[in-house]
Amino acid sequence: MKRRDEQRQMMLSQILTSEARARLARIALVKPEKARGVEDVILRAAQMGQIAEKVSEERLISLLEQFNTQTTKETKVTIRRRPSVLDNE
């Protein structure tokens, strides 16, 4: 497991610029699952040959926005008022 994480980080360091890696590390501090998902997307794209050059911070931001639109769950709040004894008037 540790070896796999080391390989993953090595691959990401080859794909991402230092600014993009720093931004992704800051995101991982707050939302590790989101950072992991974005890393997966980047690694898959690199393996498929869709990434020709290093991913800059601006490109990472656009990937994050795409990731957010795909994974955002809509929260719905429903308020139901319980009938009160005083409401029978």
TrEMBL record:
What keywords are assigned to this protein? DNA-binding
Q: Which GO terms describe its molecular function?
A: DNA binding
Q: Which GO terms describe its cellular component?
A: cytosol; nucleus
Entries under SUPFAM superfamilies matching the protein: Double-stranded DNA-binding domain
Q: In which family does this protein belong, per the annotation?
A: Belongs to the PDCD5 family.
The record's annotation in InterPro entries points to: PDCD5-like, PDCD5-like_sf
Q: Which protein is depicted? A: DNA-binding protein DDB_G0278111
Q: Do the record's keywords include DNA-binding?
A: yes
